Amino acid sequence: MSSKYDVLVIGGGNAALCAAISARRGGASVLVLEGAPKFYRGGNTRHTRNMRCAHDAATEILTGPYTEEEFWEDLLRVTGGKTDEVLARHMIRESKDILNWIVEQGVRWQPSLGGTLSLGRTNSFFLGGGRAMLNALYLTAERLGVDVEYDAEVTDLVIEDGMFLAARLKRPIKGETEIRATSLVAAAGGFEANIEWLKQYWGEAADNFLIRGTPYNRGSVLKMLLDKGVQEVGDPTQCHAVAIDARAPKFDGGIITRHDSVVFGIVVNKHSQRFYDEGEDIWPKRYAIWGRLVAAQPDQIAYIIFDSTVVTSFMPTLFPPIAGQTVAELAGKLELDPVALEKTITEFNAAVRPGTFDHTVLDDCVTEGITPAKTHWARRIETPPYLAYPVRPGITFTYLGTRVTKEARMLMADGRPSANMFAAGEIMAGNVLGKGYAAGMGMTIGSVFGRIAGREAAKHARN
């Protein structure tokens, strides 16, 4: 390993690899520093399935067009307008090229999986999932001559007046060293695995959060950058947080612990009370609000309740549902008040108005006379066995990050662009995602800005 490179990439996931490949194809010498051991390389990319990209027509794996304007409208809706429009529209426009560019880097697509709820037109699925996608990018990077160092914990960044000079790192066997580079790409993710940092904003509730991905995303590189004068972006309490099975491990549960059954039933808290409209919008545009909703409930626990008529309507998860032949029996297994749960379900059933059920559109199956309403896909829960999943907040990634330009160049706190520092992926996702989420968007941010960051970092090194 050399001690001087044209481009240093910190991180080992999708954004980092896209940056490394892009920089190498731009003629730069490149080193990737992955803080995790090789087996756990790739951060949250390991647990992904798909990417959302704009496209003008159906393809072999996409069922129809998804225009730039429709993508923008979806992003605007899920973020409530909290997005940098210039950067967001730039990302959407660039995403059209990514569908082909990522294939050129060895990644392969497959048609959407059954039970993924309305993603066949908008999202491209990786053949073999996120780990296969990641392995393809690493193979391409290594064939191009990119150096990769694992178990490489960055302990300090030497930055002077907005210019990156060197990174100091320690490794279990090789010890400490310093790497100098002409350009830096930071693609090291957020701070979702740093419970103490989460508690600064969430208080003791954060102790009940489960981390869907890697335990290595502790935000150390992000903190160094912010401490050394890089401008921050994003609300530290905002994050991609979904409802995952409460029986999942503290870290690394991944996609198989996520529940997509909310729209087919009701969700109650520990007092057996509903607290939000389960049918607010098409699931891929609303699934990522449920982590925050559950986080606001007592003890950060909730229960998805449904009946036997819908068990084949959604993707099965790692953990089986808890079942009871009666509502009271189910309540007992969940340690809920059976009288309260029966009352909630009885009142919900009475409020359901008949309609034509269709989970792929905003249908006319609604409730009347109860609060909160269920505005779509409302059906009576009345066919035993009655089923439930216990869920907790599952944090995917945080939105506090580094502010960047269209060229993925970091901005300093005084508004000046950095001389040679770029960012891609979750570490800068807050530029686009002020709040909310739509399925596959994290991978889009990573791939698009990774490719840009690598290209621009190489260009800076050449000059």
UniProtKB/TrEMBL annotation:
InterPro entries: CobZ (IPR012831), FAD-dep_OxRdtase_2_FAD-bd (IPR003953), FAD-oxidoreductase_2 (IPR050315), FAD/NAD-bd_sf (IPR036188), Succ_DH/fumarate_Rdtase_cat_sf (IPR027477). One of its GO terms (molecular function) is oxidoreductase activity. This is FAD-dependent oxidoreductase 2 FAD-binding domain-containing protein. Gene3D superfamilies: FAD/NAD(P)-binding domain, Succinate dehydrogenase/fumarate reductase flavoprotein, catalytic domain. It comes from the Bacteria. Keywords: FAD, Flavoprotein, Oxidoreductase. Its cofactor is FAD. Residues 6-432 form the FAD-dependent oxidoreductase 2 FAD-binding domain.
